[in-house]
């Protein structure tokens, strides 16, 4: 079919221009791209303006994975089934507006994204075929505007008052209360924007714990928000670790935004290999090698006055021993990123290490805190 | 798919989004990023919520997510287990189905495979 051939050619041309060496894996979520490649693309799409605008030039990494945006037109009554079929046959996502822009009221437009291979036309016809549609729906491949979603996403951030006198403010907005403790953030694409209940719970915990001169470990630092907050509350030193290079980059950027000196907030990228409990049986040395490429890069044992790990249930369970080992005996450890329904697992796992366990909850989320037992 | 009553009593819906996301692996990158960012939904909240709720699944299992975006930029989502197609392909050890369904066979699965898949799906429906 001539039309199909045209689109085939189009997607092939795209692949020639793009220089991403990881595209053949068809994995859209992960895979670092070369930094120079990202920078070049940004120079083409970022508009110049003298007003303070969202700084896209500082957004790097996997957000630039290329994808095709396709608009498909089909009868309304098959839209849901077609969407699901499309996902089975290669689409990465489909969206349907409630009020569609299509002029014909019997038809609806499905906006979908596809990876660059395999051929979009083939996927659509296979999907249509699988649900018994007699004719292949008309579709249109849209080009460009791939960074629009990032802009829209970043625009949705507004200053958040975590508690009285504590605000988290996006870089491109002015703090509503200049007198308050303001944490300025450009979250980029790292976790920790200040709005999530778990971030709030951890910030409140920190505020209660930091009296001055503590050494704080942010285990899974993301955007660095907790590490920065600790320093603003009066801690002497914050150390942030994460397995995601984008997080470390984001945290470094945010530290600079808040005028924090390099020595006061140390950030380390640690390998993502989680340490299975059985490794501890072979001795302390084995435990440490999976968390650092060399001396000085891993969080040291028994060093921190306050440790907070706001991540997810599974890593929290697997890394329990490591998280606890970093804290001084008697130090407070905060655990979050868990749903209230996951509390029993965390309490069960950590009760051997912590005493005086208390739980705070917000919406469906929980934060557990306790002091490290002295005689471990 | 909402009833009239639901429409009258609930927040107005702006869009329905469907995605496949690996369990515990949602990140603000394509396809999650563009799909949700388009409607100004809180990407981070979705990723964190989705990752926390899919901790019980084997990491990186592709989950089918349906997100309902409301006009006030809030959203709800439901997570379903992988499609039967995915289980079948995994059991058969192939990446994609036959290029000519009904004419050309891509691979084969055993009856035991089908029994195990059915058990898993039954389990997921019960969750």
From TrEMBL, chain A:
Look up the record and give one Gene Ontology term from the biological process aspect.
methylation
User: Which Pfam families does the protein's record reference?
Assistant: PrmA (PF06325)
* Protein origin, superkingdom: Eukaryota
GO MF annotations for this entry? protein-lysine N-methyltransferase activity
State the InterPro entries in the record: Ribosomal_L11_MeTrfase_PrmA, Ribosomal_PrmA_MeTrfase, SAM-dependent_MTases_sf
- Key words, A-Z: Cytoplasm, Methyltransferase, S-adenosyl-L-methionine, Transferase
**Cellular component, GO, one term:** mitochondrion
Q: Which family does it belong to?
A: Belongs to the methyltransferase superfamily. PrmA family.
> What name goes with this protein?
ETFB lysine methyltransferase
UniProtKB/TrEMBL annotation, chain B:
The name under which this protein is listed is Large ribosomal subunit protein uL11m
Gene Ontology CC annotations of this record: large ribosomal subunit
What's one GO BP annotation on this UniProt entry?
translation
- Can you tell me which family this protein belongs to? Belongs to the universal ribosomal protein uL11 family.
UniProt keyword annotations, A-Z: Ribonucleoprotein, Ribosomal protein
Question: What would be one Pfam family of this protein?
Answer: Ribosomal_L11_N
HAMAP family associated with the record: Ribosomal_uL11
State if Ribonucleoprotein is listed as a keyword: yes
Domain Large ribosomal subunit protein uL11 C-terminal residue range list: 80-120
CDD domains assigned: Ribosomal_L11
Gene Ontology MF term list: large ribosomal subunit rRNA binding; structural constituent of ribosome
Q: Which residues form the Large ribosomal subunit protein uL11 N-terminal domain?
A: 17-75
Q: What is the lineage of its organism?
A: Eukaryota, Viridiplantae, Streptophyta, Embryophyta, Tracheophyta
